[in-house]
Amino acid sequence: MAKYNEGFQVFKPRRKLQWLKSLGKVQIELELQDRTVEFEVAPIYATIIQYFQQQDKWNLNDLAAKIKIEPSMLKSKMSFWSDRGILKESSNDEWILLETAEDNSNKGFVTNEESDNNIIQSLAEQKAEEFKMYWVYIENMLKNLGGMTLEKIYGILCSVAEPSSSSNSIDNNLEDLKMFLNQMVEEDKLEFQGGIYKVKIND
Question: Per the database record, which ranges form the Cullin family profile domain (predicted)?
Answer without folding.
Answer: 1-82
